[in-house]
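Why predict the complex rather than its parts? Because the way molecules touch one another can change local conformation, and only a joint prediction can capture that. The input here totals 891 residues.
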Amino acid sequence: MLILDSVHTYYGHIHALKGISLTVNQGEIVTLIGSNGAGKTTTLNTISGVLPARAGAIYLQENARSGGPPAHPGRANDSDIRLDQLPAHQVARLGVSQSPEGRKIFARLSVQENLAMGAFARADADGISQDLERVFQLFPRLQERLSQPGGTLSGGEQQMLAIGRALMSRPRILLLDEPSMGLAPILVQQIFQIIREINAQGMTILLVEQNAQAALHIANRGYVLETGNIVLSGDAQDLLADPQVAEAYLGI
Amino acid sequence: MTPVSANGAIRNGLIAFAFLGYLILIGIPGRLGGSALPVLALVAALFFWVKLRFDAPDTGGAGLPGGSAEGKPGWQIGAPGQSSGRGVGALFPGRGGTLVLRHGLLAGVTTGLLIAGMSLAFASAIGSGASIQPVLDKIVPVNVGALIGVSPGQIANDDVPLFRYPLQVLFFTVAGLFAALAAVAARARNLQTTSMARLSAYLDSLPFRTTARFAGIALPFLLLAYIVWLGIPGVSAFGSNEGTVRLLFTLIATGSGLFAIRLAHPGREQKIVALLLALGVLTMPFILDQFQNSVMGLVFIFVMMGLGLNIVVGYAGLLDLGYVAFFAIGAYTYAFLSAPFSSPYISNLLNLLGISPEIPLLGYWTALPVAMLTAAIGGILLGIPVLRLRGDYLAIVTLGFGEIIRLFMLNLGELTNGPRGILEISQPGLFGLPPQSFSSGLLSSQGWIFLVALVSSAVVAFVAIRLNDSRLGRAWFAMQEDEDVAEATGVHLVRTKLLAFAIGATFAGMAGQLYASRQINIFPENFSLFVSIDALALIIVGGIGSPAGIVLGALALKGLPEVLRGVDEYRIVTFAALLVIMMIVRPAGILPSARRRVQVSPTDEQGPTTAAEERENDASLPAQGPPARPEDARSEEPA
Ligand SMILES: Nc1ncnc2c1ncn2[C@@H]1O[C@H](COP(=O)(O)OP(=O)(O)OP(=O)(O)O)[C@@H](O)[C@H]1O
Ligand SMILES: [Mg+2]
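Output of the joint prediction:
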């Protein structure tokens, strides 16, 4: 559904992504792990159009948009949409939604307004209220705090809000950047539980995590990123068993 | 902030002395005559009171804005608790009440000694026949004489009783003492927060709460009645100042009306109060005289400016210092359409279009959409090149744009008549009736302008309030908080920013057109940077993002100086002092918007990028002042 084909991204002269290729298929959870500064956030920002890719291509598979299976899963074809050519707001409108690193909720907008911002590009009032219901089912806490300014929520609540906001656009693919950052262990478990739940409802997810162990446990497949290159990829189970991964990222 | 208690007190004394010294040098005691010393002592007391209230040890958020309460070790000299129990300090248990008193006394003595020393030095210099610089010559003897209660001649004869100097010290010491007592008492009563919700709650807690609330609500109406009464021929009060007093009451009635709406219980009561006030304000143009009406007209023209600039600065977070440009565009567009002066360019254009150039080309109301549209186009033209700029850079570029437009008006003589300006711009008519039919009998010509300004600002306010809660409004606030995230949720940044500039400019265009017809003659000099600064200052004083606050800001910034005109040289000083006090007491503005009152603590979970961006956002509003204290955020009910 989402294909990155040797994508290069720069910050000025800094070469942050050195030709990343990866694929996310319909209905999967794919996780991207790597140490600090490896380029995980950069990858997500490049996909969502916040950062421009200087070379390479990013495709959103056309058929994925109509719900059916793509014509050539995992391989780009003519009818696919090139995301790397588009500004961020158009990428968002095509159904790529990001819960950014550090939550970045709108601190002065209320919880309700933050969620409304998630649905900014949508006009279907019925669909929006359905999704709102769904978000409240996932995060009942948010419903209790509807009119509270986002900035006054606790860290965990802010994370819930960030995920809720991303879901409100009814995305085709959800990009999650370190959803467990700074949360208490019990909340971390809860968040992963919820990610699994969202996925079970049919959402395709690209998950970036420091907590590689937990991420690989819920993911179908994984990629390991090291200083802008993908050094390893495969089934999540295999990665979990890989001694190299175990040493570098699982802290075993 | 006070490093050590004694030092802090002495420093406060020094500041008070410097301020009073300035007042003395500009000749205020001379004006006040015999009452100079008590009045200056009162000013000092007011200063001490403000300082003490905000410097003092903390009782839940009363610290200096931005400073933490613990940052004032001066108050911790005696361990808290030790100082309580004795005398007035008992009013303020465990919180250093006696320290406050000691601090006030010390500051007062310091000021008094310095003032006494200064007047002694001057008196002996003059007494010994030393010649003082020409400038000071004129001011100082009279002033010093007033300060010590004798005539300059007596000073020259060295005929000043010595006890005058200790008397000065005594006066200021007492001032410090009173200020400290007031500060302690205020704190003990827990009145230190002035937020309306608190006040409302406080009124409810009084034994006669209904009465108190009623009094608060009735005040503007009483004032209105009083203004009417003052306007009746034959009634006189306040001697020659009557017109000014009436204007002052008009300003206060309008402003307190906004507070009255907040004091009323939400729902029906609020609606009734609002309706009555609207009726009251609408009668003002009919009862005020030409001068008062012209001031009020200007105030409401600036209300429109403030509301428009607020969309750009308050909603979208784009600091625009060239806002006067759109005001000028609106004014000149209307001038072209309605004044006899016609540039060759415009006549040629008209010939081409086959329109016979009669004057005025368009009436006020038919010209209105044209002026608004031209201003909106100006807004977009400014917006396009500055799309990528933020904060300080944006401010500088827009500043330049404002000046460019003014210089155009000044130098494009063929089009704009240059510095000679455009004369005889016509007044608004209505339903085909000529303007003259409004400027006779019931309504003076300025009254008619005021009425038009009122109605136009009401329309603008309505649009601004609706925008605040709209999808577009949310997009603006989101963009203000974080452009990247907003874009990633689907906000089209270019379009959203340009819309902010265009809508803001449209309002300024409306204001400019009305301003042109109010002035009748306009010149490029009317559109200097100071108009932008006034507009920005009034939204900051009133409370960024809040329409009611903006009306208050305009009343305070454009109305009050006219009232103070009566007091001449003191005008600017007094005005500046009022502004400073206001910004200390209510750093987020008189009536801040709910969004602005939210104090968002930068949580540690947020990455360094977020923190950096927070700073950047703040930098885009240098004068916004620190967000209000936490309890303001808590007390944010729809009162
Ligand atoms: N705005 C920027 N300007 C310059 N360099 C940047 C910028 N943002 C990121 N980088 C650099 O790009 C590299 C990748 O950063 P990125 O934020 O993608 O790392 P990450 O894998 O998300 O790390 P973490 O796990 O710590 O979040 C780092 O070396 C970082 O220093
Ligand atoms: Mg990261």
